[in-house]
Specification:
This protein is an alpha/beta fold. The chain is built from 12 helices and 8 strands. A 5-stranded parallel beta sheet has the order 5-6-4-7-8. A 3-stranded mixed beta sheet has the order 2-1-3, with no helix packed on it. Helix 2 (about 85-100) packs across helix 10 (about 275-285), helix 5 crosses helix 6 (about 205-215) and helix 8 (about 235-245) runs parallel beside helix 12. The protein is globular and about 55 Å long.
């Protein structure tokens, strides 16, 4: 016998303690839940499975709210107009320069590609690792195995978005001169504008048919995407847009731009390391850089008309904001 001085009862007691300890360790391992979903782009594997969106139920197969590790990623910001996307792109470029983050490769999206969906998809599918692309292009599925592709976006309260877009095209902002960016579908449409959005809507003439209807469809055009259903502005296209929202990494809001920056850093911690610090140092300088120079407040009748006419976009906006608020709470930002 190896240890003649130790009784059998003592050995049995030690063995029992060791067994119970191993049981407790195993139990903790299988019951403990991590805080967030993580995507490791170096291995392309999902490394946890605790949802941080909606009701807290398991997030089966969606991208929304999942942390993406590494810098081997392509970010597509298919921006809804007048929702802060140019400010975000400016901050990405500023961040890259200030922190020497050479893995970030900003690209301007060639807007002419929206007239040729296959070419657009080819362009988006061929972007190099680390690319950040911002532009006004419709959502489309990008299947790649060599890198992780994520969509991000932003929205704005629909009535304010329409008003800002209308007067931006007339008066421009601090960066662009009056009417400089009026090139809808390759045509200069400024001559269709009435002096105010009230006149545009009340006259129900060319301005209403060409300008207003164009602005009205932008959010659906961007988020619903290239599905044939998306050619219409109706509940079917709304449902497609809602489904697409789950495939975005996140969709923020122009009004709470600082939260977008914070969420970006949380969900892309390696790509946007210390993004919040750079933003805080520059936000006073850039906060109003892209604001519309002049806006004329609409009449009550115009606001009432817009509430009714934009009810589908308002529903989509509220759906997106519910998800984004839940995401903020889960991330603690």
């Amino acid at each position: 016998m190896l240890y003649p001085s130790v009784s059998k009862n003592v050995l049995y007691a030690l063995a029992a303690c060791l067994f119970l300890t191993n049981v407790m360790i195993f139990r903790n391992m299988v019951t403990q839940k991590p805080n967030r979903n993580i995507v490791d782009v170096s291995t392309r594997n999902f490394l946890s499975n605790d949802s941080i969106i909606e009701s807290g139920l398991p997030n089966s197969g969606t991208q929304y709210g999942k942390i993406v590790r590494g810098t081997d990623v392509v970010i597509l910001y298919n921006a809804v107009p007048k929702t802060g996307s140019r400010t975000f792109e400016y901050m990405v470029r500023e961040y890259k320069a200030r922190r020497n983050r050479n893995h970030i490769k900003p690209h301007a999206f060639p807007q002419n590609l929206t007239n040729d969906i296959p070419k657009m998809e080819t362009f988006l599918s061929s972007l190099e690792n680390g690319s950040f692309v911002r532009g006004h292009f419709p959502y489309t599925t990008i299947n790649r195995t060599d890198t992780h592709v994520v969509y991000i976006n932003s929205v704005r309260e629909p009535i304010q978005r329409i008003i800002s877009n209308y007067y931006f095209d007339i008066f421009g902002d601090k960066v662009n001169g009056d009417g400089e960016l009026i090139h809808h579908n390759g045509q200069d449409d400024l001559h269709y504008h009435e002096k105010t959005i009230d006149e545009c809507i009340s006259k129900q003439a060319e301005c209403f048919n060409y300008v207003y209807q164009y602005y009205k469809r932008q959010t659906f055009y961007i988020l619903c995407g290239t599905d044939p259903v998306c050619r219409s502005y109706d509940r079917k296209s709304l449902e497609v847009a809602k489904r697409n929202v789950d495939t975005y990494l996140f969709i923020g809001e122009a009004k709470t731009f600082d939260k977008m920056i914070a969420v970006s850093q949380e969900l892309l911690p390696d790509y946007f390391l210390d993004f919040v610090t750079v933003f805080n140092k520059t936000k006073q300088r850039v906060s109003k850089r892209f604001h519309t120079s002049r806006k004329i407040s609409p009449t009550k009748s115009t606001v009432e008309f817009l509430k009714k006419d934009l009810h589908l976009e308002i529903e989509l906006y509220e759906y997106i904001m519910h998800k984004f608020r839940r995401l903020q709470e889960s991330l603690g930002v």
